[in-house]
Amino acid sequence: MKKQFAIIGLGRFGSSICRELYHMGHEVLAIDKDEKKIEHIADFATHTLLADGTDEAALTKIGIRNFNHVIVAIAEDIQASILCTLHLKDMGIPKVWVKAQNHYHHKVLEKIGADKIFHPEHDMGNRIAQFLTSEKVIDYIDLSADYSIVEILGTPKISGKTLIELNVRARFGCTILAIKQNGKVNITPEPDIPLNAGDVFIIIGSKQDLRRFQEEAL
Ligand code: ADP
């Protein structure tokens, strides 16, 4: 279903979101106070607008109230990001998602009602660290400081073994959510089917337990 989004701030983060949403066929209003940024995004947004996101009157005039979902991607100018978020929440926008620059920025955004707060550099840094430290990790989702979901490649070590033999929950305290075999995702893998090198495990657990599983079982 086609949805409507407004994005305020077209730096690297805001413009990437804008391009992707537009590419997915959604209606996207791209806003920045820098004319050059507006020119660059023009072919990748439904509408563009040169405006200051801290200017309440300007936001009202463009009918930002009609948007159900607004992304504030002004991060460097923390004051502007906070003020803009405050206006949007005061106007009753149901979903205001904001990029935070640091921990203090995050805390203030939380207090003023931001519905989701992003730390893209921090999250990407964590993901890259995971990839760097294990060649088996294919993908990785951080659930909290302690828990994640990882997609891990099975090595020849598991060849011919079954899930019963791996006994992942009892030995490592992790849960297998799905197994990808020959490109097919199986969310209810049989406990007694033989596993092969190259099978991919999608598994949830604490970071410590997941590391043990990778090192000892695969
Ligand atoms: P990134 O790290 O994603 O590149 P930046 O903080 O560098 O993020 O980019 C922020 C963008 O937000 C810039 O394009 C800047 O012109 C824009 N911007 C900054 N302040 C405002 C504001 N008050 N209103 C609208 N756009 C703004």
Element layout with pairings:
Layout: E1 4-8, H1 12-23, E2 27-32, H2 35-41, E3 47-50, H3 56-61, E4 69-72, H4 78-90, E5 95-99, H5 103-111, E6 116-118, H6 120-133, E7 137-142, E8 147-153, H7 163-166, H8 168-172, E9 175-181, E10 184-186, E11 200-206, H9 207-217
Parallel strand pairs: 1-2, 1-4, 2-3, 4-5, 5-6
Antiparallel strand pairs: 7-8, 8-11, 9-10, 9-11
The structure holds adenosine-5'-diphosphate (ADP).
The site of adenosine-5'-diphosphate has 21 residues, from α1 and β2.
Organism: Salipaludibacillus agaradhaerens (Bacillus agaradhaerens)
GO molecular function, one term: monoatomic cation transmembrane transporter activity
Protein name: TrkA family potassium uptake protein
Compact summary:
By secondary structure, the protein is α/β, with parallel strands linked by helices. It contains nine helices and eleven strands.
The tally of strands reads 11
Distance N terminus to C terminus? 41 Å
Q: Largest beta sheet: what is the strand line-up?
A: 3-2-1-4-5-6
Q: H/E element string? A: EHEHEHEHEHEHEEHHEEEH
Rg for CA atoms: 22 Å
The coarse overall form would be elongated
Low-confidence stretches: none
Largest sheet: 6 strands, parallel
Percent strand equals: 25-35%
Which molecules are bound in this entry? adenosine-5'-diphosphate
Helix content: 25-40%
What would you call the structural class? alpha/beta
Please state the average pLDDT score.
92
Q: Give the number of helices.
A: 9
